[in-house]
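Morning - flavin-adenine dinucleotide inputs below, output right after.
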Amino acid sequence: MKTQVLVIGGGVGGLTVALKLARCGVEVCVIEMLKGSASMYKGELLQPKSIQILQELGLRKHVEASGHRINEIEVVEKREKQNQFTTIGCSSMNYNILNSPYDYAIMVPHEKLKSILLDEAKKYSSFTYIQPGRFKGFKGKKAIVAMEKEEVEVEAEVFVGAEGRKSKTREAMDIKLKEHKYDHHFLTVSFPRPPDLTEGKMIATPHTFLGLFPLPGNMVRTVYLIPSGSYKDMKEKGIEHFYKAYSELCPELSEYVTHIKSWREIQLMIPVHFNAGQYVKDNVVIMGDAAHSVHPMAGEGMNLAIQDGDVLGELLCWMNSEHGNLSCLKWYEKVRKPRVSKVLQLSHLSALAYSKPFRYFPNVRKRAIHQMTSDEKLHTKQMLNVSGLGFWRESLLDRFVQMGILPARHYGSLQYEGHIFNEKTDYPWEEGGSLQ
Ligand SMILES: Cc1cc2nc3c(=O)[nH]c(=O)nc-3n(C[C@H](O)[C@H](O)[C@H](O)COP(=O)(O)OP(=O)(O)OC[C@H]3O[C@@H](n4cnc5c(N)ncnc54)[C@H](O)[C@@H]3O)c2cc1C
């Protein structure tokens, strides 16, 4: 079998790059090893940059109609005294502070988003989808793909490894990783929500953290932090123990959490942090979770995969039309790797605030979050950096404000166009830039 681009893995990242290629007439084949749709929870929060990409693909309205819009995330700090939780601080991180048409996030079921991307790609004759099709490795310059009844060799000008964390493509490229593990894991489950829970909410104590993110259909995605290694013990205590943990932190949920009938519905999430040293080797590329894995605290994993797919897709389309071949792949790494590093760092720092020993200083965390949301510049920087629309590094002065050593600042109107990504910075090869 022969194709111009073989995409290994039909996750959000693989489908985004494939759709971009199909739209510009590059022959692309996606292989997905699962027979049906995945049952595992895999992230649902679409950040503003991903919404912008979906708009450019003509899919924003469709995705929005299947999702729930989020404008702000309330951050509540609580403390326990004699089995009672009292609120000691409350702040709000607001996307609306961004001066952009994409000043909001969307919660959309992961499989729904994938089906929207796949259905759109199937409209193009240059797109082929093989399911189940499992990549086994390379034999010379060809990929070996196991299908239901046969094994085929696939020849391609470019191979894209988009198979998630356990990437066989990355393994074949002999790229080594330095993985960072955390002292905590997460439990995640969704269930019906109270009608007034329409925005994001994060409730933190020195010992745990509960994230609540409303989904369409009056559901809520919940993420609950537990110490690593404690999952088995918790399960043994029975489902009532889980109800109690949620109800203590958020009494409004007590009559909703009981919709969960057994531990089987609750998924364990183990956060890992890594960034591959290299995304490209000859004509083989890795993207999304195959190239990097991010702590889920800032809700970035799925977004980084979509944004990789956007840049890689645009580059491959340009190479095909301008050069007639697909040979300048390093541009993709040059644009994406530094941006991914910054987002990974941001998520890692947020994760540390909820890790030992920092989580035992809730007053410091409360002050830092309060200052960050009260100071116009810090708030804008935080939301811009999380949004993916741009990046604006924090200065030493910002850190003093965040620690409360200097007061919060107000500007009226902040100018930060220079920190927003645009076509020139997203796709610099089109301007004839240098790869060095
Ligand atoms: C439990 C969990 C919770 C998460 N929560 C969040 C969140 O809240 N927010 C967020 O933004 N991100 C979250 N993420 C991360 C997010 O799911 C990933 O970053 C995102 O899905 C990466 O997309 P991807 O396309 O790179 O990989 P994946 O979504 O992992 O897709 C890879 C695809 O490749 C297929 N595949 C694997 N091996 C092969 C092979 N050999 N041959 C063919 N196909 C193959 C897989 O079946 C899969 O369909 C979470 C991830 C997990 C695991």
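Note: The chain has three domains: 2-64+108-180+273-347, 183-269, 358-419.

O.
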